[in-house]
């Protein structure tokens, strides 16, 4: 009887019907994999009231709040927030209508307090004047330090207050605060509650707040006790205490939990007992979705149908430049606050290309070769003439006796031994004059070469020099059609290396961007403020474009002016192709960043593709040398045709009318579009 009248009290205290509710959750279910966190949950937040959501750690409060603001999708049921489901086209939830303070601090550490508030002000479309006025109020109200203080230098409690300030900034109609009073001193805690009580008085603002300090929730108009993913009670705090004759809210909740445990154990142990209990107690055999205390959803409650015309839907999908600008400025401000890292990013490509130009493709120097010359030392002897042809900057000739030369090569002192017989000149002359000579003449008129072939690159230079001499004697090289006679390996490698450096630095710049922001709750916070996945992508693209533009300018200055790499073609085409490759790198980094949650895995993914891509793209060795099945793979990679295209522009002076040139641009643009769409879709699917 007592309980029956109490339920009536509760019903009178709570507004009924959807029209009066700020938030309605009906039969809401949400799981993480196999873990069911919200189970047929029903919750009603009355309009213009404070709703205290209480419950033990891990019961699903944060998950519920994320579903309410639309950053998590529910697997069943429906949620209405301020009249429409979250993320419904044209609805400003997520957006300006909701102020969300997540449990994580979700603040940019490199920002000052004023940067933080200006950033959120921009996203909410506040004017400069409005933002400044609200900032002054919040700094005073939340007792914050000077507005130019960096967030990373604030104490834990101060950071929480900045986070609360960001949620209150735009005077939202709905405030969702996940443990705003943790780490806040009792005086300020009281002040925050007083502020919440004041703002709901107008009847236009509704608040849902979670807290671990159960007693402070007595100031809420309604409290909801959550346990195991559903609500045990939903009623004004006084009603909850009265029902359990408790003097404190904490005590009342303890009793509710115990009643709930008793029911659960009875249900588990005996299905028969359940039937018996059903007729005796209002608690037993209870439908999980119905709270022990409070309003249960009306069985006849209808789910309204919502619709939006195509213009609203289109506007909802299209990116807002205001948000892109705010996010781009945010990234640039963060970069400015890390000058060391920015300088490193600008210098790294120059260091890399310089190392490639200096260390790859040059001629070997100072290779020690033992020379055993058994001919007389006359300068007219063929052996001495041949030896004088050897490039002495590459090969350092060490005249030795036969035994010393072989001892030296066995001890690793020399890379080879060149031997000339006693009668080398006369035998060689005979070989040249006579058509048929004996084996002895052939042998005596030959240069004998013994090599240590463990270092191929150096030793190949020795027979190459002889080969070269013969070639020079026998061949008449006309002027080359493309390139120069002095073309070396560095010239071949440089265009591909420039593209590859630009691509990988861009991957490195972006691969961690979402990973860290997601981990710190910054992505969620921005989404609740109304930023879309596409806007996040585009903003990252634009801000990173600034970095890669500086990198590309420095790279080009170095390769063209310092290392004198030839460029016969249009510099504009060269720049466009390199920038587009940088964009490919950024968009690939965004794919990694949106698909992977963990820094280590994101780093591994970025590093893992580096080497195979470098080898397969024909950057350090021509594609024509790659075995066939792998060659097909090579051709679809983003840098294979692009490197070829850049070489054609720079060394052949070709333009876009040539297939080998436009093909590189087309493939690069194709990859850019694919990666950007993929990253946006992944990011959207993962919220
Ligand atoms: N991203 C996630 N992936 C898998 N499980 C998760 C994830 N987020 C939360 N959970 C699990 O869901 C359950 C509810 O978590 P939630 O953060 O909603 O609890 P809570 O009531 O807010 O806890 P607290 O008061 O400690 O913040 C926990 O068991 C948690 O481990």
Description:
The chain is an alpha/beta fold and 687 residues long. Among the domains are: 236 residues, no CATH class; 108 residues, D-Maltodextrin-Binding Protein, domain 2, CATH 3.40.190. Helix content is 53%, strand content 12%. The chain contains 27 helices and 14 strands. The strands form 3 sheets. It has a 7-stranded mixed β-sheet, sandwiched between helices. The protein has a 4-stranded mixed β-sheet with strand order 12-11-13-14, with helices on one face. A hairpin with a 2-residue loop joins strand 1 and strand 2. Helix 12 packs across helix 22. It is elongated and about 125 Å long. The N terminus is likely disordered. The site of adenosine-5'-triphosphate has 12 residues, from strand 2 and helix 2.
Short characterization:
The protein has 687 residues and is α/β, with parallel strands linked by helices. 53% of the residues lie in helices and 12% in strands. Residues 451-686 form the ABC transmembrane type-2 domain.
End-to-end Cα distance: 47 Å
Shape: elongated
Could you estimate the helical fraction of the residues in percent? Answer: 40-55%
Structural class, judged by helices and strands? alpha/beta
**Largest sheet: number of strands, sense, barrel closure:** 7 strands, mixed
Radius of gyration: 38 Å
- Strand element count: 14
Unreliable spans: 1-18, 270-289, 457-465
User: What is the arithmetic mean of pLDDT?
Assistant: 85
Strands side by side in the biggest sheet? 5-6-7-3-8-9-10
Task: Name the hetero compounds present.
Answer: adenosine-5'-triphosphate
């Amino acid at each position: 009887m007592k309980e029956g009248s109490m339920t009536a009290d509760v019903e009178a205290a709570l507004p009924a019907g959807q029209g009066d509710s700020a938030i309605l959750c009906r039969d809401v279910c949400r799981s993480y994999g196999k873990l069911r966190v919200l189970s047929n949950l029903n919750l009603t937040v009355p309009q213009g009231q404070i709703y205290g959501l209480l419950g033990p750690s891990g019961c699903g409060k944060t998950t519920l709040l994320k579903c309410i603001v639309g950053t998590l999708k529910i697997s069943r049921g429906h949620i209405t927030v301020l009249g429409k489901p979250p993320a419904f086209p044209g609805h400003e939830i997520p957006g300006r209508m909701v102020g969300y303070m997540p449990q994580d601090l979700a603040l940019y550490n490199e920002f000052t307090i004023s940067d933080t508030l200006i950033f959120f002000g921009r996203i909410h479309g506040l004017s400069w004047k409005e933002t400044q006025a609200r900032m002054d109020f919040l700094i005073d109200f939340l007792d914050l330090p000077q507005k130019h203080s960096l967030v990373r230098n604030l104490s834990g409690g101060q950071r929480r207050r900045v986070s609360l300030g960001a949620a209150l900034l735009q005077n939202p109609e709905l405030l969702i605060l996940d443990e705003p009073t943790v780490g806040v001193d009792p005086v300020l805690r009281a002040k925050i509650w007083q502020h919440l009580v004041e703002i709901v008085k107008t009847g236009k603002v509704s608040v849902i707040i979670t807290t671990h300090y159960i007693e402070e929730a007595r100031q809420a108009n309604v409290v909801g006790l959550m346990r195991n993913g559903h609500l045990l009670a939903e009623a004004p705090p006084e009603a909850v205490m009265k029902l359990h004759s408790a003097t404190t809210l904490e005590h009342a909740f303890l009793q509710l939990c115990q009643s709930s445990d008793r029911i659960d154990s009875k249900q588990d142990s005996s299905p028969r007992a359940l039937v018996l209990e059903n007729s005796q107690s209002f608690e037993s055999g209870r439908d999980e979705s119905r709270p022990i205390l409070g309003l249960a959803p009306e069985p006849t409650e209808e789910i309204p149908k919502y619709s939006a015309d195509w213009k609203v839907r289109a506007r909802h999908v299209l990116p807002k430049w205001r948000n892109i600008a705010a996010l781009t400025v945010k990234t640039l401000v963060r970069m400015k606050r890390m000058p060391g890292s920015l300088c490193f990013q600008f210098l790294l490509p120059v260091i890399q290309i310089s190392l490639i130009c200096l260390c790859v493709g040059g001629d070997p120097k100072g290779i020690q070769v033992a020379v055993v010359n058994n001919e007389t030392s006359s300068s007219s002897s063929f052996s001495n003439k041949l030896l004088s042809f050897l490039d002495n900057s590459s090969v350092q000739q060490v005249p030795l006796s036969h035994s010393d030369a072989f001892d030296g090569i066995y001890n690793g002192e020399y890379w080879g031994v060149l031997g000339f017989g006693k009668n080398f000149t006369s035998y060689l002359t005979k070989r040249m004059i006579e058509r048929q000579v004996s084996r002895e003449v052939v042998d005596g008129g030959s240069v004998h070469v013994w090599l240590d072939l463990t270092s191929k690159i150096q030793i190949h230079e020795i027979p190459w020099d002889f080969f070269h001499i013969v070639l020079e004697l026998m061949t008449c090289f006309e002027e080359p059609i493309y390139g120069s006679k002095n073309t070396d390996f560095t010239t071949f490698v440089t265009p591909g290396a420039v593209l590859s450096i630009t691509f990988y630095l861009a991957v490195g710049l972006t691969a961690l961007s979402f990973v860290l922001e997601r981990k710190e709750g910054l992505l969620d916070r921005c989404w609740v403020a109304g930023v879309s996945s596409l806007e996040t992508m585009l903003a990252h693209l634009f801000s990173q474009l600034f970095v890669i533009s500086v990198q590309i300018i420095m790279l080009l200055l170095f390769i063209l002016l310092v290392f004198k790499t030839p460029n016969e073609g249009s510099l504009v085409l060269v720049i466009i192709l390199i920038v587009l490759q940088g964009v490919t790198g950024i968009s690939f980094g965004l794919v990694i960043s949106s698909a992977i949650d963990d820094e280590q895995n994101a780093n591994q993914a970025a590093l893992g593709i580096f080497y195979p891509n470098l080898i397969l793209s024909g950057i350090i060795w021509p594609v024509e040398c790659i075995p066939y099945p792998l060659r097909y793979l090579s051709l679809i990679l983003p840098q294979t045709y692009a490197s070829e295209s850049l070489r054609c522009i720079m060394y052949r002076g070709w333009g876009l009318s040539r297939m080998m040139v436009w093909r590189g641009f087309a493939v690069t643009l194709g990859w850019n579009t694919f990666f950007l769409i993929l990253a946006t879709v992944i990011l959207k699917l993962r919220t």
